[in-house]
Design a protein that fits this description.
The complex is a heterodimer of chains A (about 325) and B (about 270). Chain A is α/β, with parallel strands linked by helices. Helices cover about 35% and strands about 30% of the residues of chain A. Chain A has helices spanning about 25-30, 65-70, 95, 115-125, 130-145, 160-170, 190-205, 220-225, 240-250, 290-300, 310-320; strands spanning about 5-20, 35-50, 55, 80-85, 100-105, 180, 210-215, 225-230, 235-240, 250-260, 270-275, 280-285, 305-310. The longest helix of chain A is centred in the middle third of the chain and has 18 residues, at about 190-205. Chain B is mostly helical and about 270 residues long. Chain B has one domain (about 1-265). The chains are: A alpha/beta (about 325), B mainly alpha (about 270).
C-alpha cells in the first residue's frame, strides 16, 4: 500500500504579538513587545494511502487549514515532517505542484471580468498541458458539472455556486493526484453541494486520486469519506472510520417508537427529544439503551421501535465542545 | 523555455482581454497621467523662451519631444507596485499564486507586459494630440528608434525588479507604503522624470548614474529625444541589462528568505 500523504509529528507554532487595549499599552508596546506562542498545529501524525478520501474535521481555528497549507507547500512547518507523493511540500518543487491542488472555498483563481474559458486556458499554459488533452479534460469536466452554458459568461456574472464549479474545474484541469479541498461547498445551496460532492467522488474513482477534505457540512463528509481525522486545538482527537467516531464520542442513543397509550409518563425512561402525537423520540445514555428498550416494550407496549445513533452533526458538536485542556 | 513562452503569451492575452473590458477607465487614467508632463513641458518651455530660446540645449520643441516621449515611457514603466505586494501578502492572496508551478514574478511581468500592448494602442492618439499642440522637435535615426524599442521594455523590467524587491520587504514589515514613498521621491529627482537629467547639477547626474532610476526612465527618453552617441546608446542598453540581472539575483535571494516568513503574515 503506497502512501500519498505521510505526516509525522508535524507542528506549526506562531509567535503572535499581544497587548492590552488602550493607548498606554500601545505606547509600551513600542519599546517592549510581548509575544504569545500559538500552537496552530501541535505534533500531529497520520498517513493517507493513495486513492483514499479522508474527511478532516474540526471547529474553526482547530488547525485544519494550517495543516492543508503545510501539506500543499504554502506554509513552512516549525516542527516534524510532512511528505506528499514523496515530496517535501515546503520545497514547492514544480514537479510536486503539478501533482497537487488546493481548493479553498473562499479564494479564487479565475479572472473576474473574463469568461472562465479564458482562465482555463491560462491554467493550461501554467501547467504546460498538451492542447488536445487539455481540451478533452476541460470539456469532460464541463459536461459532468453541467456548466456548458456558463463558461462563456464573465465570471463576475455567475452565482457563488456556479463560480465554485468553475474554480473546481480550473483546479483539476491538470489532473492532480492529490486534492486538498478546504470547505469546497461553503455557502452553497444543497443542490450545488450535492453536485460538487458527486464530482469529487467521480474524480476520485476515475483517477484514483487521494483527497483530504475539510467541511463543516457533515453531508459532504458522510457522502465522500469513510475515514475521518478530527483535529481540535491543533491536536488529533480521532483518526478512524466515521462509524467508529460516532461510537466513541456519542454518549447517547435515540429510541423512536409509537405509543399505544398517549397518556403514558415517559420521564422514567429518558429525555424526550421529540414528540409528535403518539410518535416519541427518547434520548437515553448509550449504556442504558438495551434496558430502556426492554422496559419500553414490556411496560408501554411500544410499537415500531427504532434505535439509532445520534445525528453525526450532534456527535461532532459534542467533540468540538471538548475544552482545550482535555483535547 | 517553450512552456514559459506559451505561459507569457497566455498571460498577456488575459491582460489584453481584461484591460480592454474597461477602455474608458484606462483612457481616463492615461489622460490623468499626462497632466504631470504637460505642466513640466509648459513651465520649461516658458523658461526656455525667457532664456533666449533654449535651456541647457533644450528648445521648447526639444522639451515637447522629451515630455511627449516621457508619456510613453511613464506608461511603460507602470508595474505591479509595492502596494500590490503588500495587498497580496497581507491578505494572503499570494497563496493561490504559490500553488502554481511558476514563479509569481513571471505572472506579474507577463500580465503587465500584456497591459502595455493596450496602453501603447491607447497612447498613440494622445501622442498625436500632444504633438499637434506642442510641436515636438523629434527626428530620431533608425538606430535611435531600434534602441528606444528595446530600452522601453528593459526599463519596464528594471522597474518591475526594483519595485518587486521593495514589495517583498512586506514579508518582514507587513507594510511597505512609507518605503515606497521614499523610493518615489528619489526616483522623481534621479530618474529624469521631473526634469531632463542634463539640466540637473553635475553631481546629481553623477549620483544618478549609480542608481537604477535613470535607466528605467531618463535613458529611454534620451535614446529618442536626446543627443546620445551610438556608443552611449549601446552602453546604456548594457547598463539596463546589468540592472535587470542584478535585480533578478537580488529578487531571488530576497524571495527565498522572505517566503519562509509568509506564514507569519499571510493567510
Amino acid at each position: 500500500m503506497s502512501l500519498a500523504v505521510n505526516v509525522s509529528q508535524l507542528s506549526k507554532h506562531y509567535q503572535v504579538p499581544e497587548r492590552e487595549a488602550g493607548l498606554k499599552a500601545a505606547a509600551q508596546g513600542l519599546f517592549k513587545r510581548r509575544y504569545r506562542t500559538v500552537k496552530a498545529v501541535d505534533d500531529i501524525s497520520f498517513q493517507i494511502p493513495t486513492g483514499e478520501v479522508v474527511g478532516f474535521l474540526g471547529p474553526n481555528g482547530a488547525g485544519k487549514t494550517t495543516t492543508l497549507k503545510m501539506l500543499s507547500g504554502l506554509l513552512h512547518p516549525t516542527g516534524g515532517s510532512a511528505s506528499v507523493l514523496d515530496f517535501e511540500p515546503a520545497r514547492r518543487s514544480h514537479d510536486f505542484l503539478r501533482q497537487i491542488t488546493l481548493v479553498m472555498g473562499n479564494r479564487n483563481q479565475l479572472s473576474w471580468d473574463l469568461p472562465a474559458l479564458d482562465s482555463f486556458d491560462l491554467q493550461r499554459a501554467i501547467y504546460g498541458l498538451p492542447v488536445d488533452d487539455f481540451k478533452k479534460t476541460r470539456d469532460e469536466f464541463i459536461e459532468i458539472l453541467e456548466v456548458g452554458s456558463l463558461v462563456k459568461q464573465p465570471v463576475r456574472n455567475l452565482s457563488l455556486g456556479e463560480r465554485m464549479k468553475m474554480e473546481i474545474i480550473g483546479a483539476l484541469l491538470h489532473k492532480p493526484k492529490v486534492l486538498f479541498l478546504d470547505e469546497p461547498t461553503i455557502g452553497l445551496d444543497v443542490t450545488m453541494q450535492k453536485r460538487i460532492r458527486t464530482f469529487v467522488a467521480e474524480y476520485n474513482q476515475r483517477f484514483g486520486a487521494t483527497v483530504l477534505l475539510t467541511s463543516h457540512y457533515m453531508a459532504d463528509v458522510e457522502a465522500l469519506c469513510k475515514r475521518v481525522i478530527v483535529i481540535h486545538h491543533g491536536k488529533i482527537l480521532f483518526d478512524g472510520n466515521l462509524s467508529a467516531l460516532v461510537e466513541k464520542f456519542s454518549a447517547f442513543k435515540t429510541i423512536a417508537f409509537t405509543l399505544a397509550d398517549n397518556a403514558s409518563d415517559l420521564t422514567p425512561f429518558g429525555e424526550v427529544a421529540a414528540r409528535d402525537g403518539s410518535r416519541v423520540t427518547l434520548r437515553v445514555p448509550k449504556e442504558k439503551t438495551s434496558e430502556v428498550t426492554s422496559r419500553l416494550l414490556t411496560s408501554l407496549q411500544a410499537e415500531d421501535l427504532i434505535i439509532e445513533a445520534p445525528p453525526i452533526e450532534d456527535v461532532i458538536a459534542s467533540v468540538f465542545a471538548i475544552p482545550k485542556e482535555a483535547a | 523555455m517553450k512552456r514559459y513562452f506559451d505561459y507569457y503569451l497566455a498571460q498577456m492575452k488575459i491582460a489584453v482581454l481584461q484591460e480592454i473590458q474597461y477602455p474608458i477607465a484606462n483612457y481616463f487614467y492615461m489622460i490623468g497621467m499626462i497632466a504631470e508632463p504637460v505642466i513640466y513641458m509648459v513651465v520649461w518651455s516658458a523658461v526656455a523662451v525667457q532664456q533666449g530660446g533654449a535651456v541647457g540645449g533644450y528648445t521648447p520643441g526639444g522639451f515637447a519631444a522629451y515630455y511627449i516621449v516621457w508619456t510613453l515611457v511613464r506608461n511603460m514603466n507602470i508595474v505591479f507596485t509595492p502596494y500590490g505586494w503588500e495587498w497580496r501578502i497581507r491578505e494572503g492572496r499570494l497563496s493561490m499564486e504559490l500553488l502554481r508551478p511558476i514563479h509569481p514574478l513571471h505572472g506579474d511581468v507577463a500580465y503587465f507586459a500584456g497591459w502595455k500592448i493596450v496602453v501603447i494602442l491607447f497612447w498613440i492618439p494622445l501622442a498625436i494630440f500632444l504633438s499637434l499642440i506642442f510641436k515636438p522637435d523629434l527626428h530620431p535615426s533608425l538606430l535611435e528608434g531600434v534602441v528606444f524599442f528595446f530600452a522601453i521594455w528593459l526599463a519596464y523590467l528594471i522597474r518591475t525588479m526594483t519595485l518587486s524587491l521593495l514589495g517583498m520587504i512586506t514579508f518582514w514589515t507587513t507594510r511597505v507604503s512609507a518605503l515606497f514613498e521614499l523610493y518615489f521621491a528619489a526616483e522623481l529627482v534621479l530618474s529624469g522624470r521631473l526634469v531632463p537629467l542634463t539640466l540637473m547639477p553635475q553631481w546629481v547626474q553623477d549620483v544618478a548614474w549609480f542608481f537604477p532610476f535613470r535607466w528605467a526612465f531618463g535613458f529611454p527618453i534620451e535614446t529618442l529625444a536626446g543627443n546620445l552617441t551610438p556608443s552611449e546608446l549601446l552602453s546604456g542598453l548594457g547598463m539596463q541589462v546589468a540592472w535587470i540581472a542584478l535585480g533578478i539575483i537580488a529578487a531571488n535571494l530576497l524571495w527565498r528568505v522572505g517566503i519562509k516568513k509568509f506564514s507569519a503574515v499571510g493567510g
